[in-house]
Each structure stands twice: as structure tokens, then as C-alpha cells.
Amino acid sequence: MRRGVDSSLAVAYLRVSTDEQHLGPEAQRAAIESWARARGIHVVAWHEDKNVGGAQALEQRPGLMAALASLRASRAATLVAAKRDRLARDVELAGALEVRVRRLGARVATADGTSDKHTTDGRLLMRMVDVFAEHERAVIRDRTRAALAAKRARGERVSGQPPYGFRHEAGRLVADEREQLVLQQLEQLLERGLSLRQIAAALTARGCRSRAPDGRWHKTTLARLARRGPTGHRPDGPCPENVR
After folding, report:
1. Is the pLDDT at 235 greater than 50, yes or no?
2. What's this model's pTM, rounded to 2 decimal places?
3. 195 classed as catalytic
4. Which of 103, 125, 157, 225 is most buried, with most CB under 10 Å away?
């Protein structure tokens, strides 16, 4: 831990996604407050991301970015969340966040104690929690997709943000031609063996935009799309103007 950080100060982070409401912000706050009282720690700032999934890129979470900024400004020694899965439901994201916090001279802690890296068993438990959180996210995603497919088969109206490459039209999921073209570009670039960072740069150069407010592509987003698998022949070429 770097010199100058205050071990009696912490910054709190809360996250609630659209598909898992079992641990709402009130419950998360209560858990963190109890953790802080037991250790004599003062929480100097609270930050929250609403309707944000645990696999969302770190840069696409305004609440988390604000929490890291508060950590730097206050020189607090700890970024605390109620549980590990509030930080991320993706092993790589969880690791990347740990690195960012460590570069600030601070540490990550959770009210349930699963972020204790001071013992061998603690480090093992932390990584196991990250893996199971990622697995649970995948299970939730598969169940959601199955439920939506059943609704569509019955001709029922579906709601919520459609997967990239599709849009809602008259209550049904239909292909979005511009986003399908982006997926075509992605598949071809993957076949060439480019890294996700190189692919992000290539898509940007071609004028292809993500759904993020700034239109930027992040490695996590591209990895998630790549895991959906191939969807047929993908022609090369520039994307149409203002692809979103």
C-alpha cells in the first residue's frame, strides 16, 4: 500500500443489474456499513451503477469510474463492495479492477470477506468466487435467452435491450442490417488472427460504432460478441455511416 493512503478511509461501490435484483442497493449499503463499523472505517464516498451487468467493461460504468476517482482524490486505502460479484461477474474484469486499485496504492475489500488476499486460502477463495460469479452470469444469460425464445415462439411481445445485431420491431426480434455488418467485420478480423485491441482499432477506423454512448469498442464487449460464435460469411469493407 503506497505511502499517504489512509487505512481508516474507504470508498464504497454498489451495482445492480437488470436481471438480478436479489441484492438491491439498500441491502448492499447495509452490508458495507456493518463492515465499516466493525473495523472503525469511515466511508468517504458512495458510488452506484444501476442497470449495469457484471460483465460490462470497466470504462462503461460511470459509477465505478467515479469510485476510482474518489479513491484517488480522498487517498482512501480501500474500495469496498458488498460482494465480489458486485465488482464483476467476469474473471478478467475482476483481475483488471484489482490492478487499477492496486496502482492507486489501495486494495479491494468486500463486506462478505471474500476479497481477503492475505492468506493462501483467502486468495483461493477469492478466485473461486470470481469464477462462480462468471458462471452464474452465463446461467442467467442462457435462461433469459431461453425465456425470450419461448415468448417469441408464442408470438408474445419481448422487451429489454436486444442482443447486438438485432432490434425490436412490432414486439419481435429482427436482424439489424447495420449491426449485422459490424458482426461480419468482427468475424473476419477474428479469422485473420487479430487481437481484440487490434480489432477495436480496425472497427473504429472503418467507422463502426458500438452501442456505448461514445461509440468506442472495448475488449470485453468484443470478447462477448466473439463468444457468440460465427454467423456465416463476413464480407470486408467499411461500415455504413453512423453505425450504432
Report:
1. no
2. 0.51
3. no
4. 225
